[in-house]
Amino acid sequence: MRILIIEDGHEYHELFSRFLPRDQWIRVGSGPAALDWLGREVADAIFLDMRFDRAPPAELLGDLDQAAERFNGDPVQARAFLEDHQGHFILAALRQRGVALPVLLAADLSEEPRRWARLAARYAPLDGLPEGAGPDEARSLLQAMVGGHPEGGDRGP
Amino acid sequence: MSSLLWIAALALAAPVDALGPAAQTFYQEAARAESSGHLDEAARRYRMVIQLDPAFTQGRADLARVLRAQGRLDEALRAYRAAPFDAELCEGEASLLLQLGRRDEALPVIRRLAALTPESPVSLWLEARARAGEVGSAELLLSAVDHPARVADEGSDLAILSVLEGLAPGDPAAEALRIELLARWPELASREALVEPLERVRVEGLAARLLSSGAVPWTEEDRRRAVAAAALSGAEAVAAAEGVVARAPDSAASWALLAELQEREGALAAATFSWERAVALDPLDGAQRARLGDLLARAYGGRYDREARAQLEIAADLEPARPELWLRLGRLAQRLGDPEGASAAFLQYLALAPEGAQADEVRAEVRGLRRDRLPSPPTPALSALPDGDALHLAVAQVYLSEGRLDQAVEALAEVGAPSARSLNLEASIALQRGERGRAVALYRDSLARVPAQQRVWEVLLRLHRGGAVEALPVLEHVAAGGQGCAWVLLAEDAWSRGDEALTRERLALAGQASDPAWASRAAALEDALAARTRSRWRWGLGLGGGLGALLGLRSLWRWRGVSLEGLLTRAPRAWPEVAAVVAAIRHEVIRHNLSMLPALADALEQGEGEVVGWAAERLFGASGVIDRFDQSRRALEEVARVWGAPLNLSMRDPVFSLMIADFSALRSLEARIRRGDPSAAPALRTLGVRLSRDRAGELARLIRRAALLRVDGQQVQAAWERVIGEASLRHLAAPLLDLRDLTAGRGLVRVPPEELERMLVNLMRNALQASDVPVVGVSLEVEEDWVTGLESLVLAVCDHAQGTLSTGFLRSRFVSGGLGMTVDLVYRHRGSARVAPRAGWAKAVELRLPIAAEEEL
């Protein structure tokens, strides 16, 4: 498989490249970089980190003014919000751009099944990485989505 | 982003006072560690502060400063970049990038800084520094120098030196720039660095002149003509002197003669030129220089006073025994607004001519130059201007946090009537100055005004334990006045000294403390007493004797403290701080790292040495997973300590005790993993599942369960009953609550009940007070963010008050009672407040609070 990892650090890329060397792991550091890459290259699936607190502010997707409205107009908290939920913003941008690749989100929303159900329907095909899942499990989930395995798609984490 | 938003951001920039109690404690500890040179510890503490309050950008700046001091520049850069719209962090980032020679990266940051602080010259200094060596850097530098808000500091210094270094050696532009800088900004910090090369150029010039000119003497004929010229008058004299100059143009005496006669005839500009020529030809003649200096000072309305002073200074150096030179120099310095220079020159005059004709006058002037003004009369208390006092207090607090004690004292002097807060600040300053006795007196005064100040009591007790000041009598005195919190502290003191009887006695006197934090401290002490009694009884029965008692005490000591759940039960308001640390453990320790343990086990069994080595470093290396877990654990313990319910994670907490044991087991595998020993693999797999799945899940559930509150109509109704029962509102005829609960059981938020009630009560009270119609509408709705799927509870309080309350005003209020307090509470719970139109009403104040998942209950 050829997987695009979108993360602000290098942890997942290092982890998967070392433990799953038979697959091809390509890393980009932000949403805009991912959209750019996907305009030029192809991948089988996307592994998407949730929190982007190390990305340059200019590369965060989402409207800072609108986010600031959530926090009494405080841009510092607004930026933290965009960072903490950047995975969602990237996901929304991908789908808006017509990128229909399966996405494995590095977030466990099993404690919030109703929210997860809404998001899974909204951004399908989408799956989440369960708490504590290692590289093998991540690969299985990706493989299931790519191969159209019945567990893929709108299954909650 | 709009400029209004930036203004709002600046207004919201949290001062130290706005931090939660635990974060404040960490912050103070960090500052102490930093000032005592324990930079590792300081960095750790600053990180804890940031972890607890990510919006506190000052903490990030402090962390970056410490990291820079340690040479951890990459980490410092990351700290600066965490809040890129904070001016101070922007400045730090740009300055560090310049230090690292990364000018291209620095320039966009500097531009951002310029947009954030258009009124400050700092971005100009940084840009000049970034563009050193480029055309236009000198102009940039001079525009910073001309800025009305310029400050002579390290930043301006670095910029000046960088730009000068960027100019080629020997480039006349460098000398011109130095002169220009000195002329435009005499008090600049790098003055010495500028003067030194200029001085060298001047001395070298003088030496060259001396070598090439002054040695040409008059011939007898020249001398005869000169005497004849001096005997003439008017234009004839000047013409004759010009003849002498024509005969002996390289003689300083010729030019001096001409200058003398030109000056006598009132041709002052020509005389200046001639004196300058004479000085140039014989630079070591003090008399000629003095004449030139006098002429420059006298004839040009002050425009060339600086040049005049320079000539007189050299003249005085060349002929230091001439008192009149020092006198003239002093007058000139006085005119230039340099009292120190004037005083020094006058003293020199008085030393040379103590009985001189002007000695008495000069003595009087010296006394005047040295006299200090009496302090300004104290400002009368201005009770109508609380915001002004608040501002001065905030300014003093800022100065105090920066260690600028004199400025802090100055700011405090501006405060009208002393208050508990101003006295506390003054006491902090006294403490930092080592004036412990005075600090205690000030704290006493503060407590006499507002007795329920937990932090102040703690400081007093600490001072007492430090042994330097006897705070205990103070506590006893106040406790005798009926203050329960003082008795709790006294009880803790007795407990710490092993006096159980006294502990019990004092706890009994403490009674039922009204403040939850004090109540929980008292409860913790009671638990400890009870546990000690049980333990002693058990051991007394079982083993008897001294050894048993000793072991019992040891056992008791190990069991003291509460679980995480206990902490959250006793101090529900600690939830945001606890949750922040636990989230960091889950995300940064477990999710990012421990999920690899089963894969690491595979790698061990398959002999993949490189992978194993990499993973081992990530687990056990400096700042590795284990280290970070320990740090987070300590952070939790500190939070609990501050909230008055010490944690015992290893013995009392059902989740953490297992997690600690698992980490300990992981640590014990280090040597085998580093050796690549596959026998560690099964244990790693087990630990991987336990830690990253079971423990992390349990921890998350615990945190999510705590502090959850369902907001529904019943609660709103209860708050309403309380408001209309208040004395100030009892006069209202038939007040009416129009309640619409549309949340359908989904209004679950993470807010302590008493805080939610405060918000509701404040808003309803405000609505009733502001309107002539005693009807208040409340609606509870749920709103979803489309991108993240997150839901918010929208609590709208509607009224018929025709006022001018706007969202901007609501958010800009200084946090005190009423609306301001409500906005502050909402903000602390990651929510938002705004004013919105609402059909059928004049307006609605809408609070948005993040909704927790229903499944979390």
Describe it.
The complex is a heterodimer of chains A (157) and B (857). Chain A has 157 residues and is an alpha/beta fold. Chain A has helices at 11-19, 31-40, 64-69, 75-84, 86-96, 113-123, 135-146; strands at 2-6, 24-28, 45-48, 103-105, 126-128. Chain A has a single domain (2-146), classed as Rossmann fold (3-Layer(aba) Sandwich), CATH 3.40.50. Chain A has seven helices and five strands. Chain A is globular. In chain A, 52% of the residues are buried. The model of chain A is unreliable at 149-157 (pLDDT under 50). Chain B is mainly alpha-helical and 857 residues long. Chain B folds into five domains: 3-210, Tetratricopeptide repeat domain (Serine Threonine Protein Phosphatase 5, Tetratricopeptide repeat, Alpha Horseshoe), CATH 1.25.40; 215-367, Tetratricopeptide repeat domain (Serine Threonine Protein Phosphatase 5, Tetratricopeptide repeat); 384-450, Serine Threonine Protein Phosphatase 5, Tetratricopeptide repeat; 566-705, no CATH class; 709-856, Heat Shock Protein 90 (2-Layer Sandwich), CATH 3.30.565.
Mean pLDDT metric of chain A: 88
The greatest interface between two protein chains, and residues involved on each side, is: A-B, 46 and 65 residues
The count of domains of chain B is: 5
CATH superfamily of chain A: Response regulator
Q: Quickly give the structural class of chain A.
A: alpha/beta
CATH architecture of chain A: 3-Layer(aba) Sandwich
CATH superfamily of the largest domain in chain B: Tetratricopeptide repeat domain
Number of helices of chain B: 43
Oligomeric status of the shown chains?
heterodimer
Intertermini distance of chain A: 21 Å
Tell me what the CATH architecture of the largest domain in chain B is.
Answer: Alpha Horseshoe
Average pLDDT taken over every residue of chain B: 78
CATH uppermost class of chain A: Alpha Beta
How much strand of chain A? 5-15%
